[in-house]
Amino acid sequence: MKTVCINQHLGVIGSNNVAIRSFQLNEEVGLSMFSPTTIEELPAVQARYLLESDELSLHGASAAARP
């Protein structure tokens, strides 16, 4: 899941990448938001995602740990 907030004027939540392939070829979904009330909540949601996430490192990864 990706979230983007642009100048408090546009918010986007979705699985799509910002590339022509994602928009035209892949089956992705995205929600664009234009409501200032909704958009102003997005940075807090993003901050919560970061707090609840675990940092990954290439140095800590190993092939044996893969499913």
Question: What does this protein look like?
Answer:
28% of the residues lie in helices and 21% in strands. A hairpin with a 3-residue loop joins strand 1 (2-6) and strand 2. Strands 1-2-3 form a 3-stranded antiparallel β-sheet. The longest helix has 10 residues, at 42-51. The chain has one domain. The chain is flat and about 45 Å long. With 67 residues, it is of the alpha+beta class.
* Average pLDDT score: 82
User: What's the SSE pattern?
Assistant: EEHEHH
The counted number of beta strands is 3
Q: Largest sheet at a glance? A: 3 strands, antiparallel
Spans where pLDDT lies below 50 across 5 or more residues: none
Distance between the termini: 21 Å
* Category by helix and strand content: alpha+beta
Query: Roughly what fraction of the amino acids lie in strands?
Result: 15-25%
Percent of residues in helices comes to 25-40%
Radius of gyration: 16 Å
Domain count: 1
Number of helices: 3
Q: What strand order characterises the main sheet?
A: 1-2-3
- How would you sum up the global shape? flat
Helices and strands in order:
Layout (H helix, E strand, L loop, with lengths): L1 E5 L3 E5 L5 H5 L5 E4 L2 H4 L2 H10 L16
Antiparallel strand pairs: 1-2, 2-3
Which descriptors would you attach to this protein?
3 helices, 21% strand, 67 residues, three-stranded antiparallel beta sheet, alpha+beta, 28% helix
Question: In a few lines, what is going on in this structure?
Answer:
With 67 residues, this protein is α+β, with helices and mostly antiparallel strands. It is built from three helices and three strands.
